[in-house]
Amino acid sequence: MPDQLHEAVSVIHNLLVRAEYAQLEKLTGGVRLHAEEIKKAVIDYGRILITPPISAFELMDVIKVRNAEPPKWTITMPLWTQEEGRSDLSMELTMIEQKDGYKIELDDLHVL
User: Is 3.10.450 the CATH classification of the domain at 3-111?
Assistant: First the structure.
């Protein structure tokens, strides 16, 4: 997995942890989830999101989409909470390679 993908996922995760939902919507273009939907998913889960350990990024499920042009990946990343550590909540992203980095789409936040 390219290092830039890891960095992009980390940025998204940090915005979730800081509850910066409007900024998250702006970054992802609100393609699938708007700020209020993201906020509702986190509140409905009922726990406080925290920054995961560095080793958590080894748990990302990264799939490169075949024959996609430009190159595209789907990523599922477990989230961590203050109460549970690794939680049942995960985020799903689509990352599309562009000249200046990646277009990021937040596809879903859901319980596995």
Answer: yes
